[in-house]
Every structure is written in structure tokens, then in C-alpha cells.
Design goal:
Helix 7 crosses helix 12 and helix 7 crosses helix 13. The chain has 13 helices and 17 strands. The two termini are about 50 Å apart. The longest helix is centred in the first third of the chain and has 37 residues. The protein binds one RNA strand of 90 nucleotides through helix 3 and helix 4.
Length: about 425
RNA sequence: GGAGAGAUGACCGAGCGGCUGAAGGUGCACGCCUGGAAAGCGUGUGUACGGGCAACUGUACCGAGGGUUCAAAUCCCUCUCUCUCCGCCA
């Protein structure tokens, strides 16, 4: 969420930011409530002060054995008034809360401005789109050909948008998980975490999935738990309500988890293959950074994710999301897009974002140095990478004319074979 | 699932109706001491919100939410979490 003081003193900046995003929020109502709240607060605090002072008087009078019944009676009335005002303040608080929790983050000034993804800016391209002197097959066809991906039986076991990995397919998926975690922990300095795959409502609110996007989540029946849509949620919330030591920043975590997404509103899109599933695997990178250098940390994090694609020798490009395409909680996002030969296009395989203090304020994650007050940390995260889409990219980019699939050099020791045929 | 114990500041830990924002300790910061360090000594050290240019000041906060009371960390109720024992179990 945004800083209420900032909203109060810079309403124009906030309005412009919301406009760039294409979000509509009734900010004036919020500001009006804020004013009302402060009035009521002053009133009730005066009464409470009176109560505190008089209660002490009553105490000393009683100790001296004197009569205090006048004061007691007066305080009875004051107590009633306090109760009424407290309720009014709470009502206003709730209204303000529901408004500010629905306000998205303010986009960073470096973003291209525009209403949709066509305004995204390509920053750089690595490698060349893979060339074939035959018609490249789709990864779902390759998967079924080698009997390593089974979509039909998964539909029988569960439903649409689920996959059974089999044999070397399962092994490829597992190899990618291990490979990515190994690179990030040994070469990039991240500490591995294996978090819970379900979280409570508070955690979902902390990172910004709730209250606005409940329909995108799977909720576990008879509990208040949700299946995580990304490891970002449990890992970011590790330090919820904590004050970190400034010296420990930045804190770097990487985590493997399955991800569960309802994909509401995606009917008919990407219905074939591994691209859009209700359950997929992902290795996530999460950082807790000092506000002074969080944008440098974003560059590094993006580079860390890119490194995986480079080691796998998969062609990709880096794109800065435009103001209208960026996620609710993010201030700036780089998408990494991998080349998929069969669809003849780049597809998102990682999304690396700086949330600044937006999530930290919601989840109450702060740091403190030797001097000075606690401040909110900046949180960042990025996929490093989405495993299912990586598998798809490998199948399509590494396919041979006879349908066999070469295994990228760095994966061969994990796979135990050099080719799937 | 059954029985019991507990949740207090960065951390440990006292307090169990009013004089407690909270003893004591640890940690941390600053100063003294030292050639330098350790030890020792001294001083300081909560958060949020409101008001004030500021010094400062008001309110709230002792797991969360309700209640009793003139007054609650302290009494009552509900919930959450942690620990111990029993049962069950990968």
C-alpha cells in the first residue's frame, strides 16, 4: 500500500500515477475520510486524556478515604462518549483501509507510458531466434511423441491445464529445478528456502494478491488457507512484522515451489501445452533491499535470472513493462521473454520486479540501523525461472529434424543423457 | 483427537487492578579508561498515530478481538499460535 502521509500531501502525484496505470480510484473520498478521521481522533483523544487524569485523581482520593462519587459519575458519561467516538473512528478506518488496499503502486519514472503491453520497451536481446531447416514442432507434440508429457491422462486425473511428466520429462523438470537452485545458491549468493505451499489470508494481503485478486487463487476448503500462486508470497512474508538489521541487507532467498493459479479469465488462451497451467513449477528469487540501492538490486536480480537462460543457451529478450501492463504491487518490472520457435514469438519466462516499500508496508517489514528510526525495506522478486516454460523452450529450441531433443550442456550431468530420442 | 502450560520491548525476563511504557539483564550506541583491544565504569537506547518550526506534547500498544471497571499488561470470555504428556500417523 501507499504511505497515507504521502497520499495526503501529494494527491496530484497519486492521481497522475493512477491515470497512467489506467486505474480508477476515488481519491477525493479517501482524502475527505482522512480529514474526518483526524478530527474525530483529536476529539476522542481529548476525552481519553480527561479520563486518564481523573482516574488517577479518583485513585488517590480513594486511597485517602475521601469521597469521589461525583468524579466517578462524570467518568461514566465520558466513557460512553469515548465508546461512541471510537466506533466512529473505526468505521472511518475500515473505509479508508478498503480504499487504500485497492490502490496500486506508483510506477517508477523510467517506465514507458501507455495503456497496454504494446507500449512495453525492449531493452536488449540475447542470442538469435533459433533457425531450423525444417518445420519446428510444438513442445506438446514433441512431449507426446517421446511419451514424456501426458496431457490427456492428466485431464482424466484432474482436469484441463494439468500435466503429467513422465520418464525423461519428469527428470528434465527435476533437473531444471536443481540446476537453477544450484546456480543461484553457489554463484549468486541466494540462500535456499523451501516454504509452505499454502498460506493464510494475511500473507496474501501482504504481497498484494488480496484483497483484489481472490478469483485468481485456489482456496483450500474448510480453512482460510490459499494455494500459493508463486513462492514470492510465502518467502516475502517470512519477515512479516519484523525489524531487520540494516547490516544484514540485502537478504537474498531463492525458493522452489509449485505454483497454483486459477487462471480465471484465460479461457481459450494457451489451451495447449505447458504455457498456461493451473499448476506449474518455479524457482523464485526474492530480495529484501535497502531503499537506497534497490534499483541496482533489481538490475542484479534480472541478470541472475538471465544467467540461467544464457547457461541453457536459450535466446531471449528483456522488456520493461509499460505503466498499463505492470502488476498491481510493482513499481518497475522487467520481463524476460524466451524464444519459442513453434509459436514464432518471445514468451514471458520470468518477471523481475521492484515493489519498493509497497509490500513492505502491507506486510510491515522494516529495518533499522544503529541510528535513526525503523524504515520499510524494499522488496524485489523475479522468477529464476518458470520451470514448465523452460522445459517447453528447451524442447522446442533443442529439437532436431528427426524429432530427437538435445540436452543443453549444463543439464547433461543432471539428466544423465545427452539426448532424448 | 484428549489433558495441561504459556504468549511482555531487538533478545531474555519480572510484574498479576491505580504511582508501569513497563524492574533487572543481554545486545546496541556514545563517552571515560587503554599504545590498541578485552574487561571495567558512566550515559543513552520502543513503535504507531495526532498536534507543534522546534524543544516538546497528547493518544494507543504487554499474542488478536470483545467484556467488567472511574481505572486493565494485571480480572472475565472468544480466537490464534507455541510448548509438554497421551492417542493416531507419513
Amino acid at each position: 500500500m501507499l504511505d497515507i502521509k504521502f497520499v495526503r500531501s501529494n494527491p496530484q502525484i497519486v492521481k497522475e500515477a493512477l491515470e497512467k496505470r489506467g486505474a480508477s480510484i476515488n481519491l477525493d473520498e479517501f482524502l475527505e475520510l482522512d480529514e474526518q478521521r483526524r478530527e474525530k481522533l483529536a476529539e476522542v483523544e481529548n476525552l481519553k486524556n480527561r479520563r486518564n487524569v481523573v482516574s488517577k485523581e479518583i485513585g488517590s482520593l480513594k486511597r485517602e478515604g475521601k469521597d469521589a462519587s461525583d468524579l466517578v459519575e462524570e467518568m461514566g458519561q465520558v466513557g460512553e462518549n469515548i465508546k461512541i467516538l471510537d466506533n466512529q473512528v473505526r468505521e472511518i478506518d475500515e473505509k479508508m483501509e478498503s480504499i487504500i488496499m485497492a490502490i496500486p503502486n506508483i510506477p517508477h519514472e523510467s517506465l514507458p507510458i501507455g495503456p497496454d503491453e504494446s507500449f512495453n520497451r525492449v531493452e536488449r536481446t540475447w542470442g538469435e531466434p533459433t533457425k531450423f531447416d525444417f518445420e519446428p514442432k510444438a513442445h506438446w507434440d514433441l512431449g507426446e511423441m517421446h511419451d514424456i508429457l501426458d496431457f490427456e491422462r492428466a485431464a482424466k486425473v484432474t482436469g484441463a491445464r494439468f500435466t503429467i511428466y513422465k520418464g525423461l520429462g519428469a527428470r528434465l523438470e527435476r533437473s531444471l529445478i536443481s540446476f537453477m537452485l544450484d546456480v543461484h545458491t553457489t554463484e549468486h549468493g541466494y540462500t535456499e528456502v523451501l516454504p509452505p505451499f499454502m498460506v493464510n489470508r494475511q500473507s496474501m494481503t501482504g504481497t498484494g494478491q488480496l484483497p483484489k485478486f481472490e478469483e485468481d487463487l485456489f482456496k483450500v476448503n474448510n480453512t482460510d488457507y490459499f494455494l500459493i500462486p508463486t513462492a514470492e508470497v510465502p518467502v516475502t512474508n517470512i519477515y512479516k512484522d519484523e525489524i531487520l538489521n540494516e547490516k544484514d541487507l540485502p537478504i537474498l532467498h531463492c525458493a522452489y515451489s509449485p505454483c497454483f493459479r486459477a487462471e480465471a479469465g484465460a479461457y481459450g488462451r494457451d489451451t495447449r501445452g505447458l504455457i498456461r497451467q493451473h499448476q506449474f513449477n518455479k524457482v523464485e528469487l526474492v530480495k529484501f533491499a535497502h531503499p537506497e540501492n534497490s534499483y541496482e538490486e533489481l538490475e542484479k536480480l534480472t541478470n541472475n535470472a538471465e544467467k540461467i537462460l544464457q547457461l541453457l543457451e536459450l535466446p531471449y529478450r528483456v522488456v520493461t513493462l509499460a505503466t498499463g501492463d505492470i502488476g498491481f504491487s510493482a513499481a518497475k518490472t522487467y520481463d524476460l521473454e524466451v524464444w519459442l520457435p513453434n509459436s514464432n514469438t518471445y514468451r514471458e519466462i520470468s518477471s523481475c520486479s521492484n515493489f519498493e516499500d509497497f509490500q513492505a508496508r502491507r506486510a510491515n517489514i522494516r529495518f533499522k540501523g544503529d541510528k535513526g528510526k525503523p524504515q520499510f525495506v524494499h522488496t524485489l522478486n523475479g522468477s529464476g525461472l518458470a520451470i514448465g516454460r523452460t522445459t517447453a523452450a528447451i524442447l522446442e529450441n533443442y529439437q532436431q529434424e528427426d524429432g530427437s531433443i538435445k540436452i543443453p550442456k549444463v543439464l547433461q550431468k543432471y539428466m544423465g543423457v545427452e539426448v532424448i530420442k
